[in-house]
Amino acid sequence: MKITVDFEECLKDSPRFRATIEEVEGDVCELESKLDKLVKLCIGMIDAGKAYNAANRQFVNGIRELAQQSTKDEVIESSLTKFAESLQEMINYHTILFDQAQRSIKTQLQTFVKDDLRKFKEAKKQFDKVSEEKEAALIKNAQAPRNKQHEVEEATNILTATRKCFRHIVLDYVLQINVLQSKRRSEILKSMLSFMYAHLTFFHQGYDLFSELQPLMKQLGGQLDQLVVDAAKEKRDMEQKHSTIQQKDFSNDDTKLEYNVDADNGIAMEGYLFKRASNAFKTWNRRWFSIQNNQLVYQKKFKDNPTVVVEDLRLCTVKHCEDIERRFCFEVVSPTKSCMMQADSEKLRQAWIKAVQNSIATAFRDKGDDSEKLDRKSSTSTGSLDSGGEPKERSLKGESALQKVLVIPGNACCCDCGQPDPRWASINLGITLCIQCSGIHRSLGVHFSKVRSLTLDTWEPELLKLMCELGNKVINQIYEARREELGARKPNPGDPRHEVEAYIKAKYVDRRFVRRPSDEELRNKVISLSKQEKRLSSSIEHLPPRPPPPTPKLRPGSNVSGQSVKSADSGIQNSADGSREMLANTPSNNSLADAEAAESPPMAMPATLPPPSPCKEMVFYEPKEYSQGLQLYWASCARSLPDMAEALAHGAEVNWVNTEEDKRTPLIMAVQGGSLVTCEFLLQNAANVNQQDAQGRGPLHHATMLGHTGQVCLFLKRGANQNAADIDEKTPLSIAVEAANADIVTLLRLAKMNEEMREAEGPYSQSGDETYQDIFQDFTHMASNDPDKLNRYQQYDLQRP
């Protein structure tokens, strides 16, 4: 409550004035006490906040350390790192809040107490002193005798001077009281309001920070639900396996060790043995022995490099040792040294002796044909599909994909609102997005936009090339062509979400800003694209012939033992025995065709196959009607992604059928054009990978006939039906076998084997055979990064007379 002292009343020095002064002094004293207490509490709060921040900072460091320890799990590492960054930001916001509390509460109120209340106290002391002097002067003046004139005059003069001094001091005191009462209100409200605004800023910053983090948290929440389901399933499976294994009879476990020269990892036999040292003490040490590459080696720890006991088993013998004290011993003797070993039982000793003898026999049998035998190296041996031996570019993730995509013109800012440094992308549109716009795109549905993270997700090479051939600048020229004409305002970073959402829906769903071409413009566009396709085809016809590169090999240590595919120019006849076994043993309706292909001359090409060169088939006829589907049709063949995106924006049906040209689709024309990225773009925009033409041939048929290995690999990954037959009852596999295209035969065979393995594993199987995954990944990278290695069929066709 504000207490004001009247200046007129103070001159009267009435009891009312004295009561008011007494009330004011009591109020000021209580105010000082409350302010001192509030300042002390503020200091305690700030100290506690600093301690909280210190503990919170240690907690965040613990999260970072856990993220660094989880480098093998990309989801956990990236998520924990992002969470730690967000929590660190909150610690910074807390620090700012406590600094503001110190400035607004502690410093400001302490200054008010020390300065203004001190002045009040000094004025009060002077007022109390002059009040006493005035009271004494009044008493003395009242006591002066009437008959003593000089005492009366002295008392009167003293009283007059004292009253004059009292008047000045009491007016100053009242002024100080009134100023203090007025300033008290402003100072307290000012400090508290500043403190509350600091809180407002703190919570706003926290809300903005976690609003950006919310989509990631929702995404991780969805993944977590799936992880919980997967963990429960894995737990049930492991409990079932545990119960099954627990019920087994392990009394004869010694017999489980068997020799297998065709083992997947190239290790014919392995297990623990005691080895007698060659030192003077003849100590026995337990080591992990294995027979691999016609060598006997051992390891102490898994990460240790194997120590070679016998360099070449062809030069050694093995025998029992009964003349030493230990049981179950045997000795491997080479020309330079001997090695004494001990098994755990008699059955294991016999198994090891037999394994060494079999390895010796195998080594002698394979001595004459080292150049043609299959690699039986261990899983650590080198080997890949890259024939050149150069390091392969794996699927990009995180900063690598981000850097490649953001250098494309316009991609450094969000395509829809201009927010710099976007971290998300729409893969079917080929644009980059900020986190807010990515959430809006995701709400549109995958038939409009497929959103993927540039930092958290793995990027296949063909998808990354698709992003690099489009970009924000190209797409905005299509989807924002009439924006300025219609007077529509493009959102800016920080605009309300509902405004940005309305703009994005108008742009991509309603396609309000797309400029519709006239009939004449559409006709000219289609004719131009058809001519462009002819120029591309002519350039292919006149390419100089080049010798085909060597065919990539299958990985050693894969689940399909001994698979190897030679170059198509050498024919399937020259492929390794293991590869022929793999091709022959795989279920097929074309075994006769397989046998004929395997025994045909290396360069035989059946005359019944259609010419593989696209320029020999693609002829432009004046259509009955020009449409957006026709533009997409010829743009797909001409490999023009901007024109394809424009046709889709104008409403073209991605599975449009050209009834005038054997019911071919844009995807089939993309195969004819030979572009892997064009096929990827259509598939991302819901193209049907199994739609057939009038001849009953789907995209996989056409890619096989043209020898486009990269496209075959892509279609198989996207679920193409390799068992579909055309009107001549030919499947893609039979076509590839007739053409002696070893790469495509390998892909089709492996895809079929993988499908059968997944069916055998049950309905919950997702990945299938690891070999299938590795080989398809290698073909994918080769098709995207070094396609010349897969151009054997086309190069051969160009050299034909």
Automatic annotation (TrEMBL):
Start-end of Polar residues biased regions: 558-577, 792-801
A single cellular component GO annotation: endosome membrane
Domain notes: The BAR domain mediates homodimerization, it can neither bind membrane nor impart curvature, but instead requires the neighboring PH domain to achieve these functions. PH domain binds phospholipids including phosphatidic acid, phosphatidylinositol 3-phosphate, phosphatidylinositol 3,5-bisphosphate (PIP2) and phosphatidylinositol 3,4,5-trisphosphate (PIP3). May mediate protein binding to PIP2 or PIP3 containing membranes.
Biased composition annotated in UniProt, kind: Low complexity: 379-388, 593-607
Biased composition (Basic and acidic residues): 367-378
Purpose of the protein: GTPase-activating protein for the ADP ribosylation factor family.
Pfam families reported for this sequence: Ank_2, ArfGap, BAR_3, PH
Protein name (record): Arf-GAP with coiled-coil, ANK repeat and PH domain-containing protein
Activity regulation (record text): GAP activity stimulated by phosphatidylinositol 4,5-bisphosphate (PIP2) and phosphatidic acid.
Membrane topology: Peripheral membrane protein
